[in-house]
Amino acid sequence: MRSTQERLVVDELLRLQDVRKVYGRSRNSVVALAGVSLGFRRHTFTAVMGPSGSGKSTFLHCAALLDRPTSGGVFLEGQDLTAMSERALTKLRRNRIGFVFQSFNLMPALTVVDNVTLPLRLAGKRPDRKLVDEVIERTGLAARRKHRPGELSGGQQQRVAIARALVTRPVLLFGDEPTGALDSETALEILGLLRGSVDSGEQTAVVVTHDPVVASHADRVVFLVDGQVSAELQRPTVEQVSGQMARLGAWARMQRSAGADRVS
Q: What DSSP assignment string belongs to 121-156?
């Protein structure tokens, strides 16, 4: 019979092991990630938070291998992505990983359908019409199929971005402030789509955010400070997340102040 720890490792889709990211060299170097080790279980929704400069964006870029770590390993289904060539990584991201960003990154001259199917065409694949229709229906875009981004609201454009991320049936979905440019009501609708993709058993989501409301929809919140994991919350409430962020913000200000005093 497997131990609890063994089951957790088997259930992990993604693992970062001792990941460091250092920008620059010698005295001018900046440590953005200082040995982060984290596992992400299948079919879970994790929010990553932290004060400004905590390493959230660097974490996401390294986890998705958009930027290679200085050292450490990033494992997707047990495969070390850091050992792969750029060409192999590009193919893996197209087939296995979806991305949703704050800026929608849609092609303005393309219709909703063409924007959604763009990743498939770039990969040299013929879109499955039934799957495309299913994703467009699921994201509430059925009546907007022939519209271009300029004819859509911000929330509708983000729905297109989510549909585009889902159309390749990725196992892993990364979000970088996916609701940051939206009003609160629209943001909740987008969160419902992300939550639904996880609850359906199709995706595992990892979302970087500064918004406690976004984090409260996650199964787990991981807090970063100075490039290190400082705390975690399971099944968090908005109040718990807000309180933790307030404490981390105060701690970060104290550290910066102490550093300035040492320099002076």
A: HHTT----HHHHHHHHHHTT-GGGTT--GGGS-HHH
**4-12: long-range pairs with CB below 8 Å, 24+:** 8/39, 8/41, 9/39, 11/41, 11/42, 12/39, 12/40, 12/41, 12/42
The residue-averaged pLDDT of 173-202 equals 89
> How many Å apart are CA 106 and CA 154, to the nearest integer?
11
What's the number of domains the chain is made of? 1
Residue range 195-217, pLDDT digits in tens: 999 998 889 999 999 999 999 99
Comparing 9 with 243, the larger pLDDT belongs to 243
Q: Flag whether the pTM goes above 0.90.
A: no
Residue 181 belongs to domain with CATH number:
3.40.50.300
- For residue 203, the enclosing domain spans 4-263
Q: Which two tokens stand for residue 167?
A: 């159309």
